[in-house]
User: What shape does this take?
Amino acid sequence: MARIAVVAGDGIGTEVVAQALKVIDVVLPGEVTATEYDLGAARYHRTGEVLPDSVLAELAEHDAILLGAVGDPTVPPGVLERGLLLKLRFAFDQYVNLRPSRLWPGTSSPLAHVKPGEIDFVVVREGTEGLYAGAGGTLHRDTPAEVATEESLNTRHGVERVIRDAFGRAQRRERRKVTLVHKTNVLTHAGSLWSRAFEAVKADFPDVETEYQHVDAAAMYLVTQPQRYDVVVTDNLFGDILTDIAAAVTGGIGLAASGCINPSREFPSMFEPVHGSAPDIAGKGLADPVAAVLSASLLLDHLGHADEARRVSEAVAAELASRTPGAPLRTAEVGDRLAAAVAA
Amino acid sequence: MARIAVVAGDGIGTEVVAQALKVIDVVLPGEVTATEYDLGAARYHRTGEVLPDSVLAELAEHDAILLGAVGDPTVPPGVLERGLLLKLRFAFDQYVNLRPSRLWPGTSSPLAHVKPGEIDFVVVREGTEGLYAGAGGTLHRDTPAEVATEESLNTRHGVERVIRDAFGRAQRRERRKVTLVHKTNVLTHAGSLWSRAFEAVKADFPDVETEYQHVDAAAMYLVTQPQRYDVVVTDNLFGDILTDIAAAVTGGIGLAASGCINPSREFPSMFEPVHGSAPDIAGKGLADPVAAVLSASLLLDHLGHADEARRVSEAVAAELASRTPGAPLRTAEVGDRLAAAVAA
Ligand SMILES: CC(C)[C@H](C(=O)O)[C@@H](O)C(=O)O
Ligand SMILES: CC(C)[C@H](C(=O)O)[C@@H](O)C(=O)O
Assistant: This one.
């Protein structure tokens, strides 16, 4: 029995997560318990709490977390990001932030030169270090002498394990290629650590092809030649930016799934659509649940249900291929169709 | 008499700079002296020197620097970047790194949904602070305990002056809009400084519209809606990444010009194409000099020759509009055509 903690969150989060659960229920009937946790902007406004320690301890007892979306413009920047999302990533040592990018048949890219099927890569973004460490400070606030700092912290331990994960994934893929993205010509200290760790791990994977790109060049190539990528490994902040470009060139953040993974399974991993709570369309049943359902597929794969994961992603592929561009959709209807396809 | 220091540099740098000088000579006949400085990968290999203090002192005596491209794969990462390019930006306090993006008539974007003329914005990238400060270090190198840091340093002084420059530019443009890009939800210290400085400066420009975007969202919107931007102001590293996306969506880095500007004119400003030295096509006379010539136009504008700057950019517009897509070009012929157009 897999124990899943469900953090539906705010806005469309609740709507799309309901569809993901529907699909999980059908593909693993009777094998999953889902426990809901009320976290996000709504709880913060109601109680002032973001993530009580007792809730964190309860979440730790689960096999995985399925998250919808948290956030609302009424919450000050950083409160839910640092206090909830990043806190979970760090507390559960989710060092592999996995973000697959595919241009699915039936969808279209804003790029004129790429056709469905031609983009298929995965970004392995480091999830527990770098500029996300929260190391920084402010002196002389609100005076002309003010200085504010942010520090990027990179350990050999943290860098090497995520690079090793990326190579392992590449080895299981057809093209077997890993691209390291950093900015070694300017961030010479961290860049050198990343490069040296990359060279060391590479020696253990002689059948994997490698390349290096500066982050600015990679941002450009994601637009001009996204077909060239297979597995991209990069640091926390670069990964944040590059995966949004990747989402843009594959038809939008509405289809992008992600996993915050602790490969050791010592702590639960977390799966969530990349999109936010979208307050503008919340409550109307208009949100596309595909990113949440694809996140559920990553969750199933992580829990060892590779076949079930594939059935879910194939159902999504069929759904997308059958859509009429521009036609309106209803969240629950898409969920029902996907559940039916998975059951068939 | 304007004194221009010319750092042609490596690879195609020398070829494209020659065309830019040709055009400057025609548009300001007899009013410019150009002094060449031998800096870059070639000099580094020959003498081991990157930027001797005596050369730095000589450069300081000029009104502006025109740079082609420096770098070569044979030089270790960081040597020329930190030792030459960034050293000049910092030594001459070039805090406005100006990068205009236009989708010129006659060129085409990889984006299917935008037409020539629809993209026209400028990124004002901070040039003297942030993660480019070079503050970082390494402990326990090459052991499992290694840690490497990079620190982003942001001062109220440095942030406010570049934001003020961006508002000033917006006020002189038609749409009068400034977008602040940062990552305030994660980089809370630096993000707060940037936000508060932005709010303070904004009060002095009531006729300028403003918006804020997280860097990941901005990276996405540069692909999905690049038309929405007018003036974008952001930090050093975000600006590095965003301007390469901007170059990609406006037809490539081959057309992108930039200025590293010290608005006080206390020290010389520096103008350079965004592209690199392109060793693969160097010496063949095949490089497109348009980015270098547009950089010369920014140089002319900075030195107070607004009319001449406009004549140069109009010549470039005509050149691009007259090109047959895919037709080969010869560097010197393009330079001759542009010089003739400017003279006419
Ligand atoms: C919400 C924010 C903290 C988060 C991040 O920066 O990682 C988001 O942008 C993401 O990509 O998951
Ligand atoms: C070469 C490098 C130091 C430089 C930068 O990062 O600023 C370049 O990418 C640029 O954008 O001018």
